[in-house]
Automatic annotation (TrEMBL):
GO terms for biological process: DNA integration; DNA transposition. GO terms for molecular function: DNA binding. It holds the Pfam family HTH_Tnp_Tc3_2. Gene3D superfamilies: Ribonuclease H-like superfamily/Ribonuclease H. The lineage of its organism: Eukaryota, Metazoa, Ecdysozoa, Nematoda, Chromadorea. It comes from Caenorhabditis japonica. Residues 2-56 form the Transposase Tc1-like domain. InterPro entries: RNaseH_sf (IPR036397), Tc1-like_DDE_dom (IPR038717), Transposase_5 (IPR052338), Transposase_Tc1-like (IPR002492). Residues 78-153 form the Tc1-like transposase DDE domain. This is Tc1-like transposase DDE domain-containing protein. PANTHER family: TRANSPOSABLE ELEMENT TC1 TRANSPOSASE, TRANSPOSABLE ELEMENT-RELATED. It comes from the Eukaryota.
């Protein structure tokens, strides 16, 4: 287990303990605690990384939506503002009136305050399992974006966001289509794995 933790960190030094935890988990071994991973890295002389705040982005089968930069902490009120002033106008302009919104079960996404916004705005929500990293299409879009920007340096946060935004907009729709077409297989793989990690 220790070798796998160190290998995962050396492969990508920017990985967080959560990312390493997901990558080293196997069926035959217990899931290491993030605290344990951090200790193992510290003993090996490797320094931890703080997780980077990702911007929020949306996409559909027909188009890629805007990327919204998160400044400060993403509270439920900030999330509601993004839904109201970024996501909803884009969805109405690109998807018409009949569409379903998918989000993960982050507490700020599922708070009563945000749930009330979805009711008031008559936005249909797709029910989502509580823990499903294998199923979140946005996570796979982030992977694609990170690969596109690997090795690209930025001198400040504004330049980094501009790079992310340009990279996000340049993802071909064929990539989105392939990802969405894979969702039935992903769902079946999660069912077959009975909650354990899948190849996705």
């Amino acid at each position: 287990m220790d070798r796998n933790i160190l290998r995962a960190c050396r492969e990508d030094p920017r990985r967080t303990s959560t990312d390493i935890q997901l990558s080293v988990t196997s069926l035959n071994e217990p899931v290491p605690l993030r605290r344990t991973i951090r200790r193992r890295l510290q003993v090996a002389g490797l320094h931890g990384r703080r997780p980077v705040k990702k911007p929020l982005g949306c996409f559909s089968v027909t188009s890629i939506g805007p990327l919204k930069r998160i400044v400060g902490t993403l509270y439920r009120y900030v999330y509601e503002d993004i839904l109201e002033n970024t996501m909803r106008p884009w969805a109405r302009a690109n998807l018409g009136r009949s569409w379903v919104f998918q989000q993960d079960n982050d507490p700020k996404h599922t708070s009563g305050h945000v749930a009330n916004w979805f009711r008031r705005r008559r936005v249909d929500l797709l029910e989502w399992p509580s823990q499903s990293p294998d199923l979140n299409p946005n996570e796979h879009m982030w992977e694609k974006l990170e690969r596109r920007l690997k090795g690209v340096r930025a001198s400040n946060a504004n330049q980094k966001f501009a790079q992310l935004e340009a990279g996000w907009k340049s993802i071909p729709m064929t990539v989105v289509q392939t990802l969405l077409d894979s969702m039935p297989r992903r769902c079946q793989a999660v069912i077959d794995a009975k909650g354990y990690p899948t190849k996705y």
